[in-house]
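Render Steroid 5-alpha reductase family enzyme in 3D.
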Amino acid sequence: MSPLAVAVIAFIALIVVFAAVWAWQVKSKNAGMIDPVWAISLGLTAMLVAALAPGDPHTRVVVGTGGFVWGVRLGLHLWKRNAGQVEDPRYHKFREQWGDHANKKMFWFFQLQAMISMLLSLAFFVPAYRATPPGAAWVALAAVIWVIAIAGEALADHQLRVFKADPSNRSNICRAGLWRYSRHPNYFFECVHWVAYIPLAIGVGAWIFAMLLPPVLMAWLLMKVSGVPLVEAESAKKRAGYADYMRTTSALIPWPPRHP
């Protein structure tokens, strides 16, 4: 099946999924569940692309499996974190700012996630459509990067979850494990995940440059749009000493903390 046909199928499916989640949040008044649905739907998109693309079958298996496992792991983590909780402060802030137009604007905000997902899915499309397999060394490199990314993000999520589970840490700042070296190690490894598919596209000509978009887009979204700015604005209000944490600790890339 042609890339355009697969892209149209995937895009329509994502539009329907995010419309359904939007309808859910209209009733529940909690838009936070879009996060786990986004991750899982993107993992399913990887499987869809791998199934319908006519490229090298072994590469398609690697792409589909890698994207699906990433999406399910992250989606289940976010589901457990958000289900039954109050609305994420980021979305609650949007709801307050938009007032009477909140549902309408939230609908288009949710549909924007479909477009972002399609741009990120370039990481799946390009290698899945290559006719010949990449070299064994490139596949091995992709696997190493993928494992580091998934393991690192899972470890960061676990360390933060354990920290938050202790009631005595309610107003404290997590500096456990990876969080000592980065204010957002989970975001860092999320960006690394999208780098993992680049080695699988080595040798596809000019299309290799399209593979740079997913990690760059993810880093930009997390650092400039919906990730770090909103999370840190909320943390600075609720946690004493967060300004000092920001001064001494790298925002994204794990790095030894600076002296105050």
